[in-house]
Amino acid sequence: MKKIHISNKIRTWKERHHDSLSSFTTAFLATVLGIALTFGTTMWYERKQKAEAAEALVESCLSNMEMRLDNLKGVLMKYDRQNQLFSLATSTPLDSLTDAEVSELIDLFAWQYNLVIDHSYEKSFSLSTSSHEILGSFANVIGAGFEYLQEAEENHQKVNEQKRELRRAMIVDKQVSFDQNSMRQFVTATLDDPLFGYFQLEYMQQDRSLRHYCRYLERFIPDARRLWKGEICEDEFWTMAREYWNE
């Protein structure tokens, strides 16, 4: 009878121990699974946030580049008209130009055409170390695009500075009110002035340089979008970029 009682106690202890071990194992596995799920969800959410931040950063930077390139194209339209009038004034008798053309010619070479540039995206990209971490090697593409744009814009700024120097030496800076006859005299005197000849040489150089940058960026920016979308590889992108530059 005593043996049976002891046997029952042992059986009861084993059952309780087994139940406790099962409960502990279940709780432990549930805890581990909960931690894993939480950690995995957190990592997934962080990756998702980084991917969204990268997409937004790339889109804002490329859109800013496109806007600034459009501004530079507007500058080139001014240059085209200025070149057309310069050619008329230097290759034909000045009397063949209309009064409106003479007045426009004075405005084009005497007054500056200032760019309104939004540098906020460029600055935030340049100053943010996290943006480079998010984009990886694509950050080099964005950085190069901004550098080319800045150099192109500086080209135009040099033209503005040269115009400012020209204005200091010309009657236009004295804000004289011209009649049609005096405007033609002013244009004749300006075209014959050695300072204007120097301005023209410098201007032509900046004109060529700006056109080169614009042609390059017109292909660089769309290709950067294609690279970001995975439509071309990085080696292919830089190979084409070098070819564009040398054209």
Layout of SSEs?
Layout: H1 2-91, H2 99-110, H3 120-127, H4 129-135, H5 138-169, H6 180-192, H7 194-228, H8 234-246
Helix pairs in contact: 1-2, 1-5, 1-7, 2-6, 5-7, 7-8
Write a short abstract of this structure:
The chain is mainly alpha-helical and 247 residues long. It has helices at residues 2-91, 99-110, 120-127, 129-135, 138-169, 180-192, 194-228, 234-246.
Describe the structure.
This protein is elongated. The longest helix is centred in the first third of the chain and has 90 residues, at 2-91. It has 247 residues and is an all-alpha fold. The protein has 8 helices and no strands. The N and C termini lie far apart (106 Å). It has helices spanning 2-91, 99-110, 120-127, 129-135, 138-169, 180-192, 194-228, 234-246. Mean pLDDT is 78; it is low at 1-6. Helix content is 85%, strand content 0%. Helix 1 packs antiparallel against helix 7 (194-228), helix 2 (99-110) crosses helix 6 and helix 5 runs antiparallel to helix 7.
